[in-house]
Specification:
six-stranded mixed beta sheet, about 20% strand, 11 helices, binds alpha-D-galactopyranose, alpha+beta
Length: about 400
């Protein structure tokens, strides 16, 4: 793979210079959905699939981008002096956004580069291909130009770029999971203060299976920002009656006590999800600590129900994928993962049931939805790295 990408790089951009190869993972969130902009907890992990980057410094200010995933777009040019979002050159807004964000944080990128990317995360799948490109770009800038930034900084800069350059008001989960990934571990992150712990994922006799609905999702045109502002409004209403900083500060009992302050039924539902999902995440991590994978699975299922009924971010494709998964013997838990509105589900499936799972869920999904889903048995990988 690496060799082929370097060959491709030379074919597109020419030989010579110091050509370096990098990787940044994608991520899947096991539980704690739509909690990261509500001061709650999340429990994602990095994957062994992700984005490969081949890069070489230039002596001028020119930026040349090429994606093996969007070959028809050819080489897209820009300059470090002209870092503006451009609809026509869609994907380059992610690396450009990160370069712009470095500048905003006092680390101006003075020199250009040639950058070739190849991602094996299904695009628009909810496995954070965009955050993966962002963290990869930050890592490349750090390595090529010697900026002094930690991996946690790379996560924050990536989120800043996504918010300010790409206009998506995302939380910190995706960039954090990617920048801080550790093989075999999920990250238990408190988004209120960025305290985190690594939790080993020992699913004795079970696997993580990602089912892709193949319904594409773009955060920008989805209802993501709308959900976020509904939660902010609900928080402001609750703050009228009790001094909390975020919805993540509330227990279930406290929420029930104060929810009457929220003057709109939809906002009550949104806030209820945020509060209960955060509590579910705490319980799920505790369950895993006690080797109670069964309870972990039940909490995943409850998470999906809440995302479907209270947060309303699923839709027929995700619901079908999950509801068909629940029917299969040997499925410990299954839920949508990521922002929702399409993308993927994550399921924990007993080893001996994986084959039947893919067959049965695949068949039922195709029958109901009219096109196929895709299935991936995944491994938990590490964070960004220079490969050569
Ligand atoms: C997207 C965002 C994350 C998070 C999830 C939902 O992936 O980028 O910050 O809000 O949705 O949990």
């Amino acid at each position: 793979m690496q060799k082929k990408l370097v060959e491709k790089f030379k074919e597109i951009f020419g030989e010579g210079g110091d050509i370096r190869v990098y990787f940044a993972p994608g991520r899947v969130n096991l539980i704690g959905e739509h909690t990261d902009y509500n001061g709650g907890h999340v429990f994602p992990c990095a994957l062994t699939i992700g984005t490969y980057g081949v890069a070489r410094k230039r002596d001028d200010q020119t930026l040349r981008f090429y994606s093996v995933n969007f070959e028809r777009l050819g080489v897209l040019e820009s300059s470090v002096e002209q870092l503006k979002a451009d609809k026509k050159a869609d994907w380059t807004n992610y690396p450009k956004g990160v370069m712009w964000a470095f500048g905003q944080k006092g680390m101006k990128v003075e020199q250009g580069m040639d950058l070739l990317l190849f991602g094996n995360i299904p695009n628009g799948s909810g496995l954070s291909s965009s955050a993966s490109v962002e963290v990869l770009t930050g890592y490349v800038l750090k390595d090529l130009f010697g900026f002094d930034v930690s991996n946690q900084d790379l996560a924050l800069i990536g989120q800043f770029a996504e918010n300010q350059f790409n206009g998506v008001n995302c939380g910190i989960m995706d960039q954090f999971a990617i920048a801080m990934g550790r093989a075999g571990h999920a990250i238990f992150l408190d988004t209120a203060d960025l305290k985190y712990e690594y939790a080993p994922i020992k699913l004795d006799g079970a696997k993580i299976v990602i089912s892709c609905t193949n319904k594409k999702r773009g955060l920008g045109d989805s209802k993501y920002n709308e959900r976020r502002s509904e939660c902010e409004q609900a928080l402001a209403e609750i703050q009228e009656v009790v001094g909390i900083r975020t919805l993540g500060d509330l227990s279930e009992e406290q929420f029930e006590q104060y929810k009457a302050a929220v003057k709109d039924e939809t906002r009550v539902k949104r806030a209820r999800h945020a509060v209960y999902e955060n509590q579910r995440t705490l319980k799920a991590v505790e369950a895993l600590r006690n080797d109670n994978v069964k309870l972990f699975g039940e909490l995943m299922n409850a998470s999906h129900v809440s995302l479907r009924d209270d947060y309303e971010v699923t839709g027929i494709e995700l619901d079908t994928m999950v509801e068909e998964a629940w029917k299969v013997e040997g499925v410990i838990g299954s839920r949508m993962t990521g922002a929702g509105f399409g993308g993927c589900t994550v399921s924990i499936v007993k080893d001996e049931a994986v084959e039947a799972f893919i067959e049965q869920v695949g068949k039922a999904y195709k029958e109901k939805i009219g096109y196929e889903g895709d299935f991936y048995v995944v491994e938990i990988g590490g964070g960004p790295a220079r490969l050569a």
